[in-house]
User: Fold these one by one.
Assistant:
Number 1:
Amino acid sequence: MKISVGVSNRHVHLKQRDLRVLFGEGYELHNAADLTQPGMFKAEEVVTIKTDKAEIKNVRVIGPTRMYTQIEISKTDSYKLGLNPPIRNSGDLMGSEEITIIGPKGEIKTNGCIIATRHIHLTEEQMKYYKLEGKDSVNVLLPGVKGGIISNVYLRPSSNAFFELHIDTDDANAHMIKNGDIVEILED
Amino acid sequence: MKISVGVSNRHVHLKQRDLRVLFGEGYELHNAADLTQPGMFKAEEVVTIKTDKAEIKNVRVIGPTRMYTQIEISKTDSYKLGLNPPIRNSGDLMGSEEITIIGPKGEIKTNGCIIATRHIHLTEEQMKYYKLEGKDSVNVLLPGVKGGIISNVYLRPSSNAFFELHIDTDDANAHMIKNGDIVEILED
């Protein structure tokens, strides 16, 4: 089971209300580039994320807006910012860290800061085809001199999903994996 | 086979001649803290490492001086610096990247910049005891939500070694592993 890799740099998903505060009344995100997952796009807009300890500028907003604001960072980022975010699937913000987001027109202090789980986007049909039904997660073999096997790679079936493994920059850099590399889902 | 983890942040080993250029004639490193490997220490001294693209300040010098100057960085650092260093065992500087090191009294441009292989320090007796003789490398199981198995963990037998797994900050952060954590060497 070969699968291509998408490496996720730190990024922000915004709810409509927060977009308004950060970028102004009636503002709409501008699509800078479509992402591989249908309907999702890298916005032209960037924000600054900030804690008492440090800030990181030019954090990309991913569109479209969502029902919740979510800030996805790496463990490396978390040390810099002095945060200890939980490892969470997207949308599961239980215990997430609080952080300040600064836009050109305003700022918000919000919870929603997490380190995303490693995950695979796929369709229900692909779950069947690859005999993954009933599984929550799989192990994935990453090749190379700094390769290995990553565990707890969550399956995220949805209609229209593009079949792809998403890992963060820490996982990518630790294993010397780049965007678009091909890796292997392991059978039990 | 349980083993404790030492996480190596970016650091520099200096040969005597380079120490002299960076810190002045007759300069000697000051021991800020002993490292777990006998005879080695974290020096009080720090340097700046620099490329055309960026610089990183406060890079720790590890003492004592060696026969060669070696700069060990992470893949994350390499992106910041615009370098593409090879993955190498300590002392194997074939194909290493060139970088500028800046000290309080001078600067040098030198090769020797690598990303260190994952490795285990152990004695010849431990090689025998753990039935690792004849092996170059092993796989190590890292526990946790972002755990997995890291491959190509090189065995580095030497007299007086302290039994410890050394990984870089990318490997540590990707797997949420901290200094002093206990992990497991896998048998074949």
Number 2:
Amino acid sequence: MKKVVTFGEIMLRLAPEGYLRFSQAEKYGATYGGGEANVAVSLANYGLDAAFVTKLPKHEIGQAGVNALRKYGVDTSKIVRGGDRVGIYFLEKGASQRPSKVVYDRANSAISQAKRVDFDWNNILDDVEFFHFTGITPALGGEVPAICEDALKVCKEKGIMVSCDLNYRKNLWTKAEAKETMSKLMPYVDVCIANEEDAADVFDIHATNTDISSGKLNYDGYKEVAKTLAETFGFKKVAITLRGSISANDNNWAAMLYDGSEFYFSKNYLVHIVDRVGGGDSFGGGLIYAILNNFSMQETIEFAVAASCLKHSIEGDFNMVSVDEVLKLAKGDGSGRVQR
Amino acid sequence: MKKVVTFGEIMLRLAPEGYLRFSQAEKYGATYGGGEANVAVSLANYGLDAAFVTKLPKHEIGQAGVNALRKYGVDTSKIVRGGDRVGIYFLEKGASQRPSKVVYDRANSAISQAKRVDFDWNNILDDVEFFHFTGITPALGGEVPAICEDALKVCKEKGIMVSCDLNYRKNLWTKAEAKETMSKLMPYVDVCIANEEDAADVFDIHATNTDISSGKLNYDGYKEVAKTLAETFGFKKVAITLRGSISANDNNWAAMLYDGSEFYFSKNYLVHIVDRVGGGDSFGGGLIYAILNNFSMQETIEFAVAASCLKHSIEGDFNMVSVDEVLKLAKGDGSGRVQR
Amino acid sequence: MKKVVTFGEIMLRLAPEGYLRFSQAEKYGATYGGGEANVAVSLANYGLDAAFVTKLPKHEIGQAGVNALRKYGVDTSKIVRGGDRVGIYFLEKGASQRPSKVVYDRANSAISQAKRVDFDWNNILDDVEFFHFTGITPALGGEVPAICEDALKVCKEKGIMVSCDLNYRKNLWTKAEAKETMSKLMPYVDVCIANEEDAADVFDIHATNTDISSGKLNYDGYKEVAKTLAETFGFKKVAITLRGSISANDNNWAAMLYDGSEFYFSKNYLVHIVDRVGGGDSFGGGLIYAILNNFSMQETIEFAVAASCLKHSIEGDFNMVSVDEVLKLAKGDGSGRVQR
Amino acid sequence: MKKVVTFGEIMLRLAPEGYLRFSQAEKYGATYGGGEANVAVSLANYGLDAAFVTKLPKHEIGQAGVNALRKYGVDTSKIVRGGDRVGIYFLEKGASQRPSKVVYDRANSAISQAKRVDFDWNNILDDVEFFHFTGITPALGGEVPAICEDALKVCKEKGIMVSCDLNYRKNLWTKAEAKETMSKLMPYVDVCIANEEDAADVFDIHATNTDISSGKLNYDGYKEVAKTLAETFGFKKVAITLRGSISANDNNWAAMLYDGSEFYFSKNYLVHIVDRVGGGDSFGGGLIYAILNNFSMQETIEFAVAASCLKHSIEGDFNMVSVDEVLKLAKGDGSGRVQR
Amino acid sequence: MKKVVTFGEIMLRLAPEGYLRFSQAEKYGATYGGGEANVAVSLANYGLDAAFVTKLPKHEIGQAGVNALRKYGVDTSKIVRGGDRVGIYFLEKGASQRPSKVVYDRANSAISQAKRVDFDWNNILDDVEFFHFTGITPALGGEVPAICEDALKVCKEKGIMVSCDLNYRKNLWTKAEAKETMSKLMPYVDVCIANEEDAADVFDIHATNTDISSGKLNYDGYKEVAKTLAETFGFKKVAITLRGSISANDNNWAAMLYDGSEFYFSKNYLVHIVDRVGGGDSFGGGLIYAILNNFSMQETIEFAVAASCLKHSIEGDFNMVSVDEVLKLAKGDGSGRVQR
Amino acid sequence: MKKVVTFGEIMLRLAPEGYLRFSQAEKYGATYGGGEANVAVSLANYGLDAAFVTKLPKHEIGQAGVNALRKYGVDTSKIVRGGDRVGIYFLEKGASQRPSKVVYDRANSAISQAKRVDFDWNNILDDVEFFHFTGITPALGGEVPAICEDALKVCKEKGIMVSCDLNYRKNLWTKAEAKETMSKLMPYVDVCIANEEDAADVFDIHATNTDISSGKLNYDGYKEVAKTLAETFGFKKVAITLRGSISANDNNWAAMLYDGSEFYFSKNYLVHIVDRVGGGDSFGGGLIYAILNNFSMQETIEFAVAASCLKHSIEGDFNMVSVDEVLKLAKGDGSGRVQR
């Protein structure tokens, strides 16, 4: 079984039921999620040997995070235990014209306080084929950017393929900080993943003629973005997700893959949203699976987009789908007829 | 009050809440349903004297099935009590491009193990005007096909009108088995009900130019299907539901009725789905009600389709609507304005 | 802080969960709401000093109504305590072609039995800038119409601006009774609010060429309605909401404002409904806020419609939105993108 | 199957979940219950043909009351449909030293407004062996006491045995009113049921040396009460329940039966309470069953007390137990060991 | 109405449902609580004008804390808004021999980061009669001990009576730190409240012959504790709660009050626990109410203990009881009989 | 880490919420459990490397069983996937005098249909120190007794210590069948575990002077039972749990351990029950842990009883406690005081 490692933060996600606003909530659904953890779960659900690396407190709230990953078969044996708190994010689900809202309470989480000595990357990355992280991880600050670099250097030594989802978070750092730190890490990256805003936010590379809040994207503008990214940092592949947000309930969803020479566009899905958080991560999970299984470029982008299309129909951060389910959709059956 | 009897299996339906996948469910909504039981509830809700006949264990899980029917006024006094288990089906509700999924656990249910001596049809069908069953019932195997035939013979003797919903279930039998058994029972049937796939699955009668997973149906192709069915088995009426599945959330819904000479198409509804399981059964219930009340052919098909259109907005297998509600929609008010 | 007073009934709202029908409900969500109370909550959420006036029993069910208002910052110190019961309404949420259904159980509520001596309007309206009521309040009968008139006279004396939402309720009175009573109260009103049916129901003033159950409204027909209303009763402003009901899930939503000379139409929103009860009240709340803050006519109608557009995405009678959220939508961002 | 009829009010019971106080409740469990309806459900659960007679509105809230009874096999075909509202009671469950609390909202319910012409007792009581009502029914006022008398006269004519549970409700009438009305009805009664307070409240007949709020009862004092009751009204049997309330969680529970010559005391149970509402009604149900089945006096009181002991372990007004379960406890196994 | 101010932290309380362990929880009940906030709610429920002072972030999670207090009538107008996070505590409810468990996540909460300049005590304490805080507040560190002292000095100037509940929290500071800081604040305190461990933890004053984990307390040993406390710090009154913990479900609960000359012991309650968090705070609330209303010493301690006895039967931190309910129990009716 | 393997069936457990009876349940809590699976979870929670071996279908309901075990760290890599169904048991929780009730629906589960070739015991038991099974496993019939024997022979070869919990299930086999089959397997067993009834049911070895339904056990009678068991089958240790069932809520709980020469009795716990299913399994888990860690005989029985005492306070089949928690109780702190 192919081994993949992802590294980052997993948070406790607290969300009011249904479409209740925070001010109406008497209880919170309590699940766990985070960019790289979500990718690990996707991959474990596809049958890969996926390990997630982070630091989590020893107490029950930290342990529940470990359990959430174990339940879906993620290898948690490399998680460092210690520190005081689990990062939290509060999520209010939007509907119609009302957007979803996230309130972060993640400062001083165990992983954000972690030290370089906590992680023995030579051991962690033993026998590993693929390593994935996102721009959120170095944004945690402290020693975390250095920990990322430590990991990436070992990846280089061991010939491990690396993907990074740029994933800019304005609450964690400024665009300038992001650009400086990410620019140092990008040379280690083989596969760059971004959404329709990230390249602009992190590297000041803009798609032309696009207004994301209008719900309409100019797909051609993203060709240039991908090309510039690849040329600047030497990425072997650049994948960009293209979300057209019609409302909090309805989105268009598609993506583009660039391999340094050709541009491959997926088909577009009109998705009726159950939960869109983790949509980008499920795209990353699908992309990594397809790459590790040597799908063609077109098959790769179709698999990744179909996987993330399905994620939008699933509650929680994690994408709970099988390879068969993704392939069925990628091959064209999106009719939603009952499977008996 | 007109008496109707339906005969078949009622199962315990276990469904995760909302759009949760099986792997995320910590609890299951526990309701009861099954093709013929659903029709009986429809008819009881329309004010008819509807009895459901089956075999159910004496224990509490069997009793809860009886209670579920009694609650809505179905006559359960003819249910045979005995056997070991209640059939179960697990239902995961789909959304957007993700289809609903059913896992059956119905083998060895009390009804599937029932014996011909369990049912005294002369008594059960006393004073009855209409008898309904579906293709699922003989598919249960054992003595059940013979029990069906026993019932049908008594219907013939007593001049009871008979309807059958073909309802092919690939988990219960092969197409060849279905064809053989059903062909023997069809001569007793007056009204044949089928969905857009059943005639092909059971009797190898195909509509031309239709791809059901594309969401687009060729309505004209079904005229030929209905005609062939009527000619082959001598049905007085053939009704075919026409589901155009756009996604797990949105379906087109219409139907056609053939009376041996003319084809009557209902108006089409674009339904936003709450729960589509039991959609076909609610059509059958509406059809039987309309026939028993001597509606015109066009009124009949409009009533049946409006009834089943409303079912798609209701949780559970049972169609919880009144005659007034169906008529209001059939007559054209589908605006959904609040009724105060 | 600007002080506003609203006067009317607040009811216990009992609603089955999700899309369950009454006959399926084993529990009811228990919240509180009512036309004028809903407006008070809207205004408190916008930061105004909003007081709600009514009469509620001293017992726990009455107290829970007080608490529901206090929670959101409404001043409840002017509520008269006494009487026997809290009015109740049962609400079943519709879906697709199935309409929402309301069963009222409000007869003999404490406020409907209230006496003129219960309310010392000189004290209640001290320092108040704006007074709001709806046509539901006088429809409660008994001394309530007289209590309304008492309040309105004091408003006149104190120069308090008055708005009235016509809000015809056929269960409470006939059209003839409504016309007679409302005609007496209208001369005190500065701002008249109505939906697409109210003017016809209460004052027999009809929009031409409109069939509300078809989902299509003839906007021009409402210009004449507004003009006639203004001329008949001397309203300074007339605002009419224009709901185009496609289904129980999807509505078009817009409004028109007439200031005696010009007609201002808002943009139209296609809303995917979470809960549409209180939609009109949230429009009233937005309108009052905009008027009190001297928005331009066009800004006023856009604010009121954006506010009520958002209400449709929120569970319960109350509109839980901030001024910032309304302005963001009114200015054009309805893409529903996640706010992190 | 022996036919029994009970007559009275069935109310919608709205109860916060668990031990939440009214002020904390965001939802209410919605079940149905009422003294005589509870007895009917007990008897249906024991396999008797039990009909409940009342008047309920035609709307969905009334229908849900009918459904609640049908679910458990009660014959609802004699219920008169009409009137405006279903009586409601709000129930907050107590714990430890905090008592349970009931807020009634039952005025003007359909049954309280019923007319003598609504009930054709000759038809209703055809073939009936036993008739039961409680002191709550005549307390509803209006024509209801006369309706009771109408029923009782027909019972006398037909030789139907009659039981009455005195059940004094201070919110419905004064002790003087109760005494006057009940004194007129008692001559028709064969079996009188009372709790440790009723005889004092209704007929001013007091047990000596008992302080019910101390949790200690003087059993001997109740012998005199029973004897006086029997002598005054000519009851053939008098049964008195003896609740020793230690706390809201823990009660002693026993009863005494007097047959005009001997006193039979049941064993005492220390019950750990799940829900004690309906405790007295379940005693009545057990008593009637035992009498109809010609149990000995001692067996009768043991059956009735064991039945009601079990009721305290069951949520809701209804006693959901079988004859076998009651007999098992009455015969001595109260160990609560798991039944596999 | 008498004005009382309490000052401290209010936290978001996240608790699994029922008796689920953290590792089993899929959702958390979300309420708010904290020592001084709990006292403020108690007092507001008794009808006093109670204000709670703290610092809370402006975001929705902070606002929900404000709403929780407003709902029960607490004056929140003096709460300073700002800072980043709301302190959180996770609470797992124990049962039988398994203790309840609290995991704190309160570091860096807005109040713990507050500055002296945030609070204008002259304004806050205007017209106030009573001020209350607990040992938890200075334990928050940073400038909070100084803020406490600022408040206490103003109390002294204005002649406001002051109570302090020692409430030692070992996760917030060491015993040595507590002793040093608290010793400086005690001279401003009139009424000292402590549980059976606090005096030992904070001031090294031990009751003789008591082993709290055995469930048995030596009451006489606490007389000496109270006397020493009063003599050391000049308290006018010392109240000590005496919890005898039999199991997580069953506790003995009593208290002692010392007025400098006499010792007053309350009656003892055997409480069957629903939720014991906030038990001590509800004692403080009862004590303050009784003192402000000039109850006798014996009445005071009985009122405070009865109030807190009832709290153990109520979910959440807040004590939701009325003066009448407390008095009824204090006067001896703990039988838990249903109140209709 | 010490490796332990347990072998048996894991079932889907469907339980109404709280104390609802089956007939009242609208949803079922869905967890997983079974004698040997419960022991595996206990051991994983204690930090051992515990693997559970069974056969489960590949479908989602089977996978959810795997996930339930993985969540708590049980090694599921040896589970054979295949077969059609997951065994189910329905559990209704008892209260007071009403016993808990189990309805089994486990016939034809995947494990009961498993074949000897499905299990490669040499591989499964590689490096294992301890093997555990219960009398339920051979009772499943078919090839399962032979599979057990296959496993036990490999244990013997590898010198793996074996424990067996007799666990008689009357629904699965007769006493005669149990005796015959179990007698063949016992010679491989080192540690025999039984409850107060098992030895009598399986081997006709009776304790004298004990009536289990009376709630009183004669402890001395069990000494003889243990001795006879040890002598008959050559067990090195015999452990017998001693449940004194006072009611469904309250049990006495203790145990005895016999090592062939001495009898060691644990202290007795009066447990207030949250969920007693799995109580015996948690005893087995504690016993195995203590044996593997070379606790003294007295420490061993105290650990096992304290572990299972705590289980009674935890929902579900699994015992969710840590070694520290068990030791704390075993050493005497059962006061249930809050752990902060």
